[in-house]
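Retry 2 of 3 after timeout on previous attempt. Resubmitting C-alpha coordinates to design endpoint.
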Protein backbone atom coordinates (compact mmCIF):
# COMPACT_ATOMS: atom_id res chain seq x y z
CA UNK A 1 0.00 0.00 0.00
CA UNK A 2 1.27 3.47 -0.78
CA UNK A 3 0.45 7.11 -0.25
CA UNK A 4 0.24 8.62 -3.73
CA UNK A 5 1.35 12.22 -4.33
CA UNK A 6 0.61 14.33 -7.38
CA UNK A 7 3.73 16.38 -8.19
CA UNK A 8 4.08 19.11 -10.76
CA UNK A 9 6.89 20.67 -12.74
CA UNK A 10 6.88 24.39 -13.41
CA UNK A 11 9.52 26.20 -15.46
CA UNK A 12 12.00 23.37 -15.13
CA UNK A 13 11.59 22.99 -11.34
CA UNK A 14 9.57 20.72 -9.12
CA UNK A 15 7.00 23.07 -7.58
CA UNK A 16 7.77 23.90 -3.97
CA UNK A 17 4.21 22.99 -3.01
CA UNK A 18 4.74 19.54 -4.61
CA UNK A 19 7.91 18.94 -2.58
CA UNK A 20 5.97 19.92 0.55
CA UNK A 21 3.35 17.32 -0.40
CA UNK A 22 6.00 14.61 -0.83
CA UNK A 23 7.39 15.49 2.64
CA UNK A 24 3.86 15.42 4.02
CA UNK A 25 3.09 12.07 2.39
CA UNK A 26 6.31 10.66 3.89
CA UNK A 27 5.07 11.67 7.35
CA UNK A 28 1.70 9.99 6.71
CA UNK A 29 3.43 6.88 5.32
CA UNK A 30 5.57 6.62 8.47
CA UNK A 31 2.43 6.81 10.62
CA UNK A 32 0.44 4.30 8.57
CA UNK A 33 3.22 1.83 7.74
CA UNK A 34 3.07 2.50 4.01
CA UNK A 35 5.35 3.90 1.32
CA UNK A 36 5.29 7.06 -0.80
CA UNK A 37 4.75 6.98 -4.55
CA UNK A 38 4.92 10.23 -6.49
CA UNK A 39 3.47 10.69 -9.95
CA UNK A 40 4.92 13.32 -12.27
CA UNK A 41 4.68 14.20 -15.94
CA UNK A 42 7.66 15.20 -18.07
CA UNK A 43 10.38 15.21 -15.41
CA UNK A 44 14.05 14.71 -16.28
CA UNK A 45 16.53 12.74 -14.16
CA UNK A 46 17.52 15.73 -12.00
CA UNK A 47 13.89 16.51 -11.15
CA UNK A 48 13.16 12.87 -10.35
CA UNK A 49 16.15 12.90 -8.02
CA UNK A 50 14.76 16.00 -6.29
CA UNK A 51 11.41 14.27 -5.69
CA UNK A 52 13.29 11.28 -4.24
CA UNK A 53 15.24 13.53 -1.88
CA UNK A 54 11.97 14.96 -0.57
CA UNK A 55 10.98 11.46 0.56
CA UNK A 56 9.35 9.51 -2.32
CA UNK A 57 10.21 5.80 -2.32
CA UNK A 58 8.97 5.32 -5.85
CA UNK A 59 8.17 7.65 -8.75
CA UNK A 60 5.77 6.95 -11.60
CA UNK A 61 7.31 8.88 -14.48
CA UNK A 62 4.75 9.84 -17.14
CA UNK A 63 5.72 11.18 -20.56
CA UNK A 64 2.54 12.44 -22.10
CA UNK A 65 2.29 15.69 -24.06
CA UNK A 66 -1.53 15.49 -24.08
CA UNK A 67 -1.62 16.22 -20.35
CA UNK A 68 -2.36 19.91 -20.04
CA UNK A 69 -4.05 21.88 -17.28
CA UNK A 70 -7.42 20.18 -17.93
CA UNK A 71 -8.40 18.76 -14.54
CA UNK A 72 -10.21 15.79 -16.19
CA UNK A 73 -6.97 14.58 -17.79
CA UNK A 74 -4.94 15.02 -14.60
CA UNK A 75 -7.68 13.32 -12.60
CA UNK A 76 -7.66 10.32 -14.94
CA UNK A 77 -3.90 10.02 -14.70
CA UNK A 78 -3.94 10.10 -10.88
CA UNK A 79 -6.90 7.71 -10.73
CA UNK A 80 -5.06 5.15 -12.88
CA UNK A 81 -1.93 5.56 -10.74
CA UNK A 82 -3.93 5.16 -7.49
CA UNK A 83 -5.43 1.91 -8.79
CA UNK A 84 -2.08 0.58 -10.08
CA UNK A 85 -0.40 1.33 -6.74
CA UNK A 86 -3.34 0.25 -4.56
CA UNK A 87 -3.01 3.63 -2.92
CA UNK A 88 -5.47 4.31 -0.15
CA UNK A 89 -4.39 7.93 0.42
CA UNK A 90 -3.81 10.51 -2.33
CA UNK A 91 -2.17 13.88 -1.61
CA UNK A 92 -2.35 17.09 -3.66
CA UNK A 93 -1.26 20.65 -2.98
CA UNK A 94 -4.20 22.95 -2.20
CA UNK A 95 -3.37 25.06 -5.25
CA UNK A 96 -5.20 25.68 -8.53
CA UNK A 97 -4.71 22.11 -9.77
CA UNK A 98 -5.37 20.53 -6.37
CA UNK A 99 -8.56 22.56 -5.92
CA UNK A 100 -9.86 21.38 -9.29
CA UNK A 101 -8.66 17.77 -9.30
CA UNK A 102 -8.89 16.57 -5.67
CA UNK A 103 -12.72 16.86 -5.40
CA UNK A 104 -13.16 15.24 -8.83
CA UNK A 105 -10.89 12.36 -7.86
CA UNK A 106 -12.55 11.88 -4.49
CA UNK A 107 -15.93 11.55 -6.25
CA UNK A 108 -14.51 8.95 -8.64
CA UNK A 109 -12.80 6.94 -5.90
CA UNK A 110 -15.65 7.41 -3.42
CA UNK A 111 -13.06 8.88 -1.10
CA UNK A 112 -13.46 11.29 1.79
CA UNK A 113 -11.69 14.59 1.12
CA UNK A 114 -10.09 17.21 3.34
CA UNK A 115 -9.14 20.28 1.31
CA UNK A 116 -6.55 22.68 2.74
CA UNK A 117 -4.99 20.53 5.49
CA UNK A 118 -2.46 22.35 7.69
CA UNK A 119 -1.15 19.60 9.93
CA UNK A 120 0.03 16.00 9.88
CA UNK A 121 -3.00 13.72 10.41
CA UNK A 122 -3.56 11.81 13.60
CA UNK A 123 -4.16 8.13 12.83
CA UNK A 124 -7.16 6.75 14.69
CA UNK A 125 -7.76 3.15 13.58
CA UNK A 126 -8.81 3.37 9.93
CA UNK A 127 -9.58 7.09 10.25
CA UNK A 128 -7.35 10.07 9.70
CA UNK A 129 -8.04 13.17 11.77
CA UNK A 130 -6.87 16.24 9.92
CA UNK A 131 -6.69 19.90 10.91
CA UNK A 132 -7.68 22.66 8.50
CA UNK A 133 -8.39 26.37 8.74
CA UNK A 134 -12.02 27.48 8.69
CA UNK A 135 -13.90 30.81 8.78
CA UNK A 136 -11.22 32.57 6.71
CA UNK A 137 -8.47 31.37 9.00
CA UNK A 138 -10.15 32.62 12.20
CA UNK A 139 -10.46 29.08 13.57
CA UNK A 140 -9.19 25.56 12.98
CA UNK A 141 -11.36 22.47 12.73
CA UNK A 142 -10.43 18.80 12.91
CA UNK A 143 -12.03 16.62 10.23
CA UNK A 144 -12.10 12.87 10.35
CA UNK A 145 -11.95 10.84 7.13
CA UNK A 146 -13.40 7.40 7.73
CA UNK A 147 -13.75 6.11 4.16
CA UNK A 148 -11.36 3.45 2.88
CA UNK A 149 -9.99 5.80 0.21
CA UNK A 150 -8.82 9.20 1.38
CA UNK A 151 -7.87 12.35 -0.54
CA UNK A 152 -6.05 15.24 1.17
CA UNK A 153 -4.89 18.56 -0.24
CA UNK A 154 -2.21 20.40 1.72
CA UNK A 155 -2.20 24.18 2.16
CA UNK A 156 1.10 25.47 0.67
CA UNK A 157 3.75 26.80 3.09
CA UNK A 158 2.34 24.80 6.00
CA UNK A 159 5.66 23.01 6.56
CA UNK A 160 9.32 23.73 5.80
CA UNK A 161 10.75 21.24 3.26
CA UNK A 162 13.28 18.75 4.57
CA UNK A 163 15.43 16.69 2.23
CA UNK A 164 17.71 13.69 2.60
CA UNK A 165 19.93 11.55 0.38
CA UNK A 166 16.95 9.24 -0.24
CA UNK A 167 16.82 7.80 -3.77
CA UNK A 168 13.48 6.84 -5.29
CA UNK A 169 13.03 3.98 -7.73
CA UNK A 170 11.60 5.22 -11.04
CA UNK A 171 9.03 3.36 -13.13
CA UNK A 172 7.71 4.55 -16.49
CA UNK A 173 3.94 4.88 -16.27
CA UNK A 174 1.70 4.84 -19.32
CA UNK A 175 -1.54 6.73 -18.95
CA UNK A 176 -4.57 5.89 -21.06
CA UNK A 177 -6.43 9.13 -21.71
CA UNK A 178 -8.60 7.75 -24.52
CA UNK A 179 -11.71 7.66 -22.30
CA UNK A 180 -11.46 11.37 -21.47
CA UNK A 181 -13.60 13.63 -23.58
CA UNK A 182 -11.52 16.72 -22.83
CA UNK A 183 -13.37 19.91 -23.55
CA UNK A 184 -10.37 22.14 -22.97
CA UNK A 185 -7.69 22.88 -25.50
CA UNK A 186 -4.76 24.84 -24.09
CA UNK A 187 -3.47 26.94 -26.98
CA UNK A 188 -0.96 29.09 -25.19
CA UNK A 189 0.31 29.60 -21.66
CA UNK A 190 1.28 33.17 -20.78
CA UNK A 191 3.11 33.59 -17.51
CA UNK A 192 2.01 36.44 -15.26
CA UNK A 193 5.35 36.72 -13.52
CA UNK A 194 8.01 38.96 -14.94
CA UNK A 195 10.70 36.36 -14.66
CA UNK A 196 12.77 35.54 -11.63
CA UNK A 197 10.18 36.30 -8.94
CA UNK A 198 8.72 33.50 -6.85
CA UNK A 199 4.96 33.04 -7.43
CA UNK A 200 2.90 34.47 -4.56
CA UNK A 201 1.51 31.15 -3.21
CA UNK A 202 5.07 29.81 -2.87
CA UNK A 203 6.78 33.00 -1.67
CA UNK A 204 8.31 33.02 1.82
CA UNK A 205 8.80 36.81 1.83
CA UNK A 206 6.03 39.12 0.63
CA UNK A 207 5.93 42.92 0.43
CA UNK A 208 2.35 44.08 0.01
CA UNK A 209 0.86 47.54 -0.38
CA UNK A 210 -2.57 49.13 -0.40
CA UNK A 211 -4.49 52.26 -1.16
CA UNK A 212 -2.26 54.21 1.24
CA UNK A 213 0.29 54.34 -1.60
CA UNK A 214 -2.04 56.87 -3.33
CA UNK A 215 -1.34 55.76 -6.91
CA UNK A 216 0.50 53.28 -9.15
CA UNK A 217 3.28 55.78 -9.83
CA UNK A 218 4.42 55.34 -6.21
CA UNK A 219 5.07 51.58 -6.38
CA UNK A 220 8.79 52.08 -7.10
CA UNK A 221 9.63 52.15 -3.37
CA UNK A 222 7.59 48.96 -2.83
CA UNK A 223 9.34 47.15 -5.66
CA UNK A 224 12.70 48.39 -4.45
CA UNK A 225 12.09 47.03 -0.96
CA UNK A 226 10.85 43.71 -2.38
CA UNK A 227 13.84 43.40 -4.70
CA UNK A 228 16.33 44.02 -1.92
CA UNK A 229 14.62 41.51 0.35
CA UNK A 230 14.19 38.93 -2.41
CA UNK A 231 10.43 39.17 -1.80
CA UNK A 232 7.37 38.86 -4.04
CA UNK A 233 4.99 41.83 -4.30
CA UNK A 234 1.28 41.67 -3.42
CA UNK A 235 -1.52 44.20 -2.97
CA UNK A 236 -4.96 44.78 -1.50
CA UNK A 237 -8.08 44.31 -3.59
CA UNK A 238 -8.92 47.99 -4.31
CA UNK A 239 -5.40 48.41 -5.66
CA UNK A 240 -5.91 45.66 -8.23
CA UNK A 241 -9.52 46.74 -8.88
CA UNK A 242 -8.23 50.20 -9.79
CA UNK A 243 -5.59 48.57 -12.05
CA UNK A 244 -2.74 50.06 -10.03
CA UNK A 245 -1.34 46.53 -9.86
CA UNK A 246 -2.08 43.30 -11.77
CA UNK A 247 -4.89 41.08 -10.48
CA UNK A 248 -2.60 38.15 -9.74
CA UNK A 249 -1.09 40.23 -6.88
CA UNK A 250 -4.43 40.60 -5.07
CA UNK A 251 -4.42 38.74 -1.74
CA UNK A 252 -7.32 38.13 0.60
CA UNK A 253 -10.67 36.42 0.81
CA UNK A 254 -11.43 36.95 -2.86
CA UNK A 255 -7.79 36.86 -3.96
CA UNK A 256 -4.93 34.49 -3.26
CA UNK A 257 -4.50 33.11 0.26
CA UNK A 258 -0.85 33.05 1.27
CA UNK A 259 1.19 31.93 4.30
CA UNK A 260 4.67 33.40 3.88
CA UNK A 261 7.26 33.53 6.66
CA UNK A 262 7.21 37.34 6.44
CA UNK A 263 4.35 39.56 5.27
CA UNK A 264 5.03 43.31 5.19
CA UNK A 265 1.79 45.30 4.79
CA UNK A 266 2.29 48.91 3.75
CA UNK A 267 -0.61 51.39 3.65
CA UNK A 268 -3.18 48.60 4.09
CA UNK A 269 -5.92 49.13 6.68
CA UNK A 270 -6.33 45.44 7.60
CA UNK A 271 -9.96 44.83 6.66
CA UNK A 272 -11.21 41.37 7.60
CA UNK A 273 -11.43 40.35 3.93
CA UNK A 274 -7.75 41.22 3.47
CA UNK A 275 -6.69 39.45 6.67
CA UNK A 276 -8.51 36.30 5.55
CA UNK A 277 -5.82 35.75 2.92
CA UNK A 278 -2.75 36.65 4.95
CA UNK A 279 -3.37 35.83 8.60
CA UNK A 280 -1.59 32.49 8.23
CA UNK A 281 1.69 34.42 7.71
CA UNK A 282 4.31 33.50 10.30
CA UNK A 283 5.40 37.12 10.94
CA UNK A 284 3.38 40.21 10.01
CA UNK A 285 4.91 43.70 9.85
CA UNK A 286 2.52 46.62 9.41
CA UNK A 287 3.50 50.11 8.26
CA UNK A 288 0.64 52.58 8.54
CA UNK A 289 0.34 56.28 9.44
CA UNK A 290 -2.89 55.72 11.38
CA UNK A 291 -2.17 54.22 14.79
CA UNK A 292 -5.80 53.05 14.94
CA UNK A 293 -5.51 50.98 11.73
CA UNK A 294 -7.06 47.53 12.46
CA UNK A 295 -4.06 45.75 10.92
CA UNK A 296 -1.93 46.62 13.98
CA UNK A 297 -4.04 44.18 16.04
CA UNK A 298 -2.79 41.30 13.86
CA UNK A 299 0.80 42.56 13.57
CA UNK A 300 3.88 41.05 15.17
CA UNK A 301 5.73 44.32 14.51
CA UNK A 302 4.14 47.69 13.73
CA UNK A 303 5.62 50.95 12.48
CA UNK A 304 3.37 54.01 12.82
CA UNK A 305 4.36 56.56 10.21
CA UNK A 306 4.38 57.70 6.61
CA UNK A 307 5.18 54.87 4.18
CA UNK A 308 6.91 57.33 1.86
CA UNK A 309 9.48 58.07 4.57
CA UNK A 310 9.75 54.66 6.22
CA UNK A 311 9.93 52.31 3.23
CA UNK A 312 13.00 53.93 1.58
CA UNK A 313 14.74 53.98 5.00
CA UNK A 314 13.96 50.28 5.46
CA UNK A 315 15.35 49.51 2.01
CA UNK A 316 18.53 51.47 2.78
CA UNK A 317 18.92 49.59 6.08
CA UNK A 318 18.55 46.26 4.27
CA UNK A 319 21.12 47.28 1.65
CA UNK A 320 23.58 48.25 4.40
CA UNK A 321 22.94 45.02 6.27
CA UNK A 322 23.56 42.98 3.11
CA UNK A 323 26.73 44.93 2.31
CA UNK A 324 28.08 44.20 5.81
CA UNK A 325 27.40 40.48 5.34
CA UNK A 326 30.02 40.28 2.52
C1 LIG B 1 -17.01 40.59 -0.33
C2 LIG B 1 -15.73 41.34 -0.19
C3 LIG B 1 -14.55 40.71 -0.48
C4 LIG B 1 -13.34 41.42 -0.35
N1 LIG B 1 -12.15 40.77 -0.63
C5 LIG B 1 -11.00 41.43 -0.42
C6 LIG B 1 -9.76 40.77 -0.62
O1 LIG B 1 -9.69 39.61 -1.02
N2 LIG B 1 -8.61 41.47 -0.38
C7 LIG B 1 -8.61 42.78 0.05
O2 LIG B 1 -7.53 43.35 0.24
N3 LIG B 1 -9.78 43.42 0.23
C8 LIG B 1 -10.96 42.79 0.01
N4 LIG B 1 -12.13 43.46 0.19
C9 LIG B 1 -12.07 44.91 0.47
C10 LIG B 1 -11.80 45.22 1.93
O3 LIG B 1 -13.01 45.25 2.65
C11 LIG B 1 -11.11 46.61 2.08
O4 LIG B 1 -11.94 47.59 1.48
C12 LIG B 1 -9.74 46.66 1.43
O5 LIG B 1 -8.94 45.60 1.89
C13 LIG B 1 -9.08 47.99 1.78
O6 LIG B 1 -7.91 48.11 1.04
P1 LIG B 1 -6.71 49.02 1.59
O7 LIG B 1 -6.38 48.61 2.97
O8 LIG B 1 -5.65 49.00 0.55
O9 LIG B 1 -7.35 50.48 1.54
P2 LIG B 1 -7.91 51.41 2.68
O10 LIG B 1 -8.94 50.74 3.50
O11 LIG B 1 -8.27 52.68 2.02
O12 LIG B 1 -6.66 51.63 3.64
C14 LIG B 1 -5.54 52.39 3.31
C15 LIG B 1 -4.65 52.43 4.52
O13 LIG B 1 -3.48 53.15 4.20
C16 LIG B 1 -3.12 53.95 5.28
N5 LIG B 1 -2.32 55.06 4.76
C17 LIG B 1 -2.73 56.14 4.03
N6 LIG B 1 -1.68 56.90 3.70
C18 LIG B 1 -0.60 56.33 4.24
C19 LIG B 1 0.78 56.66 4.24
N7 LIG B 1 1.24 57.73 3.63
N8 LIG B 1 1.63 55.84 4.91
C20 LIG B 1 1.18 54.74 5.56
N9 LIG B 1 -0.12 54.37 5.56
C21 LIG B 1 -0.99 55.16 4.92
C22 LIG B 1 -4.43 54.41 5.89
O14 LIG B 1 -4.27 54.76 7.24
C23 LIG B 1 -5.28 53.16 5.73
O15 LIG B 1 -5.20 52.32 6.87
C24 LIG B 1 -13.34 42.78 0.06
C25 LIG B 1 -14.56 43.40 0.36
C26 LIG B 1 -15.73 42.70 0.24
C27 LIG B 1 -17.02 43.40 0.57
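Retry 2 succeeded. Sequence:
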Amino acid sequence: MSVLVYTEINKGHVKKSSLECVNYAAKIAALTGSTVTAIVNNADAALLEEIGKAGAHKILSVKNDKLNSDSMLICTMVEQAAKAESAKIVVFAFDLVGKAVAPRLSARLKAGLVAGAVDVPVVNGNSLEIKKNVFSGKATAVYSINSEMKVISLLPNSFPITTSENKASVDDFNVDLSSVNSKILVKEVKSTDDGGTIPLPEAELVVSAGRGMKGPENWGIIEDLAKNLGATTACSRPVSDMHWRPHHEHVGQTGIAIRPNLYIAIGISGAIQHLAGVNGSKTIVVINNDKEAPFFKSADYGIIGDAFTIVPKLTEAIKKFKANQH
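Attempt log closed. The radius of gyration is 21 Å.
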